[in-house]
Amino acid sequence: MRVLIVLAHPRLGSFNHAIAAAVGAALAAEGHAVDTCDLYAEGFDPLFAADELNRDCELPPRLAAEIDRLKAADAVVIVHPNWWSQAPAILKGWLDRVLRVGVAYRFGANEKGEGVMVSLLNTQKALVFTTSNTPQAAEQALYGDPLDTYWKRCVWGALGIPTQRRNFEPVILSTPDQRATWLTEATQLARETLC
Ligand SMILES: Cc1cc2nc3c(=O)[nH]c(=O)nc-3n(C[C@H](O)[C@H](O)[C@H](O)COP(=O)(O)O)c2cc1C
Fold it and tell me: How does 154-173 read in b/e, with b if 16+ C-beta sit within 10 Å?
């Protein structure tokens, strides 16, 4: 299986980097072809240019290359911190620019004649790892866990791609032992979900 890991954290050495590295190594050890896209390190430009609203526009080569990476993936792993109950802007920009109509999805109709999005990707599964400091119960009670809705229903779910998510928290209070346990859990979940 070809797996694309998309990582959105600005600091090398972050716990998010550790998750991406551990999951990537575990999947590679199982024989999967892993492509890790570290959005900050690669300098991904999240700004959506006006011309990109035109379906037939000529895509900048770097954007076309990013789309090719996603189109090659049988599975996608997303890794990012919770920033104001959302993904960092660089990852939102990646989604806006890479999930293009006519490329990543098309519009179709269900049996009731209602408009739906139909995936044009090879991606069969998505796995999302997030990190935060707010206790999970509070995130759910106060805000309804927006990241869960976003990834499972608004993005991958809207394209019909089954999605699992695991949030690790509170990172700020975690010990090295706790983080090691989380990394083990992340790799196990990746193997169970994607292997
Ligand atoms: C701009 C910004 C916004 C943040 N917003 C939230 C938030 O809304 N909820 C929360 O629990 N943590 C929030 N945090 C804390 C991060 O989620 C936390 O630092 C990160 O998950 C820790 O992972 P790391 O060690 O890999 O950086 C925010 C941090 C930053 C820098």
Answer: ebbeebebebbbbbbbebee
